[in-house]
Recover the amino acids of this structure.
């Protein structure tokens, strides 16, 4: 379980988070929706301690992330997979080396097992046979899928998606959305998706949290969020958030 | 006018100490990561190859010219006053104590330092450094420590090559163009050679190797603002590392040679 308790974060004079309260239960897929610059990605980076809160607490499975030492934090991070907005593939490595990176670094498997695991992960994201390709030979959608294969390689308990459909055409965005849902069911993991793609968020999420002005403005299931006149979603889509 | 000048100098001074303190933090973190040296051995070997072996062709070429130039200049300066065998002494000692370690370090500040800053800086602005952290891999252990180890271990080796090539070049020019016989040149080298001078050259190059790789890594890890930031980091590395090399050159020369 992941829980944010009154989390505040500022960069110089820019107060990005102003008291975030959010809970994500085991096995859930929660999407965080909000306009650019509202602190969605910053929220995500707090979960694995890449950023530290100025005030408030972030808890993961009963551990306060802000108080963890370097080694404990490294151990915690091994239980997470993170798909970056830019995919953040290591551009000096092939697709195979990217996916195998954490497996090799953490010495969890033999080289033969690593090969098998890489092939398995690439098959899950429908990129079988792309092992030898370099990142600059991949399209935007393919890069995201390789990033996703790398994120699931260590069989994480949690996957964090940072804008998984940004920069993709609508068709590829739907493919990535389907992929996230399929992996969620297949791997039975807990996922948080940060996005401003309302359609994808409504399609794939168990619950949604709408960010506005550094806080959670609304929270609920897709049905609840879009119920009645769906005023919150309309406001968000019309740029009033 | 003076208020503005004091404000400017104070601001610059504060910034310098802020960066110095942060770079020291990276150095300390890299030293702590040495306990995982075995874990990062692939990265260390890779960097030793890139920083050390990769620099040898350039250094061999350039040191040949510095050796030849030193030889001609020395023969010209002493002509008519001092016996010619002194050319061998001066070429050897200049290369051992000063030219090979310091001049080549300035060249390597560009080749190695700027390369490190651009590589790590690009990784930083494209979230690859964050990706490392997210996978439970310490960026200082994976990126900074191997470069630092490679710098302090491989620079002295590269400088040994530089000294040998420079002295060979000096010998060739002196004997073929400056009228110094082979026997005189060798006699001069033998009379001037002190084993301690080799140590001075090696200590200097080890410290310069540390400065260049640390400054490059620090500038890379602190890169912001995309491609513009990467360019700034590379330039700042060359300027900062070169300045520190020349300042350290004075400090080291003074402290290491006063024992003679």
């Amino acid at each position: 379980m992941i829980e944010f308790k009154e989390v505040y974060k500022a960069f110089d004079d820019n107060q990005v988070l102003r008291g975030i309260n959010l809970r994500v239960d085991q096995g859930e897929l929660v999407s965080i929706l909000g306009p650019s610059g509202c602190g969605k990605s910053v929220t995500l980076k707090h979960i694995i301690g890449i950023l530290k809160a100025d005030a408030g607490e972030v808890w993961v499975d009963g551990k306060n992330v802000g108080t963890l030492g370097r080694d404990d934090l490294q151990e915690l991070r091994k239980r997470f997979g993170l798909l970056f907005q830019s995919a953040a593939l290591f551009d000096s490595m092939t697709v195979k080396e990217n996916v195998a990176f954490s497996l090799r670094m953490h010495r969890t498997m033999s080289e033969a097992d690593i090969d098998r695991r890489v092939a398995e992960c690439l098959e899950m994201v429908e990129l079988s046979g792309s092992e030898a390709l370099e990142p600059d030979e991949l399209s935007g959608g393919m890069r995201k899928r390789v990033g996703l294969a790398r994120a699931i390689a260590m069989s994480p308990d949690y996957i964090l998606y940072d804008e998984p459909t940004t920069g993709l055409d609508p068709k590829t965005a739907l493919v990535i959305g389907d992929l996230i849902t399929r992996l969620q069911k297949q791997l039975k993991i807990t996922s948080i998706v940060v996005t401003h793609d309302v359609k994808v968020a409504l399609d794939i999420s168990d619950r949604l949290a709408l960010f506005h002005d550094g806080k959670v403005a609304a929270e609920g299931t897709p049905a609840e969020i879009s119920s009645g006149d769906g005023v919150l979603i309309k406001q968000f889509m019309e740029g009033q958030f | 006018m003076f208020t503005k000048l004091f404000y400017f100098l104070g601001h610059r001074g504060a910034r310098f100490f802020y960066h110095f303190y942060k770079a020291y933090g990276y150095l300390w973190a890299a030293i702590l990561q040495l306990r995982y040296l075995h874990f990062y051995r692939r990265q260390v070997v890779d960097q030793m190859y890139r920083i050390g072996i990769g620099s040898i062709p350039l250094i061999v070429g350039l040191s040949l010219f510095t050796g030849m130039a030193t030889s001609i200049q020395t023969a010209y300066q002493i002509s008519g006053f001092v016996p010619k065998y002194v050319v061998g002494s001066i070429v050897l000692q200049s290369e051992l104590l000063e030219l090979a370690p310091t001049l080549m370090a300035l060249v390597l500040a560009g080749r190695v330092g700027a390369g490190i800053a651009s590589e790590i800086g690009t990784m930083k602005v494209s979230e690859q450094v964050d990706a490392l952290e997210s996978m439970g891999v310490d960026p200082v252990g994976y990126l900074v420590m191997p470069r630092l180890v490679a710098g302090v271990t491989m620079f002295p080796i590269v400088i040994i090559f530089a000294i040998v090539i420079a002295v060979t070049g000096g010998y060739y020019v002196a004997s073929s163009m400056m009228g110094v016989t082979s026997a005189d040149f060798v006699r001069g080298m033998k009379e001037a050679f002190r084993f301690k001078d080799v140590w001075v050259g090696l200590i200097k190059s080890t410290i310069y190797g540390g400065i260049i790789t640390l400054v490059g890594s620090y500038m890379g890890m602190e890169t912001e603002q995309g491609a513009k930031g990467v360019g700034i980091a590379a330039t700042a590395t060359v300027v900062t590392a070169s300045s520190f090399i020349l300042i350290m050159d004075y400090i080291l020369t003074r402290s290491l040679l006063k024992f003679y």
Observations:
- The radius of gyration of chain A is 18 Å.
- The domain at 1-79+196-241 of chain A is CATH 3.40.50.300 (Rossmann fold).
- Chain A touches chain B at residues 45, 48, 50, 70, 74-78, 80, 82, 84-86, 88-91, 101-102, 105-106, 154 (CB under 8 Å).
- The beta strands of chain A are 2-11, 14-24, 29-33, 55-60, 63-64, 80-83, 158-162, 190-195, 207-212, 215-220.
